[in-house]
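Morning F.,

Quick status update on the modeling queue. The single chain you submitted on Monday has been processed. Sequence for confirmation:
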Amino acid sequence: MPFVDTDWRNAVEFAAATYFGNIYLYSLKEAQSLRTYEAFSNFIYEISWDSTGSFLSSYAENNQYLKIFLPINSKCLYKLDHKSEVLCSKWYPLEKENDFIKNGLKLITGCNQGIIRIWSMENGTCIQSFELIHQAGVHCISIFSNGELMCSSSIDKKICLFNLKNKKILRYFSTTQIVNDISWSFDGHYFSAASGDNILIVDVNKLLQDIINRGTID
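C-alpha cells below.
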C-alpha cells in the first residue's frame, strides 16, 4: 500500500494517507488500524491534525474540496468547497489571549486561482476570503503563532506578508524559485524561505517599524 503522508494526532496515534485516497488512523498500541477514512479517489496531497487533535484535514490532487474528519468515526464531518484546486492549508495557531482566534478552531487554505480562504470548524463555513493577495496559485501558507501575521507564497514566485487582523498587505518579496515552505523564528522577529540557491531572511520587526515610520505600505 503506497503511503504519501503522515501526521501525528497525539503521542500514540497518527494518520497515514495513501496514494489511492484512503486515510488510516493508527495507534502504537494496536496492531491494526483504528479507523479508515475513505477521503478521495485520487492522490492525497496532505493530511494534517489541528494542534488539539480534534480535526483531521485533507486535500487531494485536482480536487476543489477539503475534507475534515473526526477521530471518533469514519464519516466526513465537513466537505469544504474552495471552488478551485486546493494547493495548501494551515491550521491557525491557538493562543488564548489572541482576540482574532478566540472563537474556535480555524483552517486557512490556498488554491490554484490565488484565493486564500479561512474556514470555521464550528460549522464548516468559509468566514473570510482574500482574492487580491496573489494573482497566481497559492503554494504555501505560514502563520506566526500570535495568529496576526501570515506569509504566503505563490506560483508567480512572490511572497506576501499580510496582516490578518487589519487585513492589510504589508510587503511583497520576489524570489528566484517557487517557495515550498516558509518558517517563522520562535519570537516572530524573522521569517525565512528557501528559493533555489538562495535563502530569504526577513527582519519583520524592522520592516514593520519602517512602515510605521513612513506611514506607507509598498
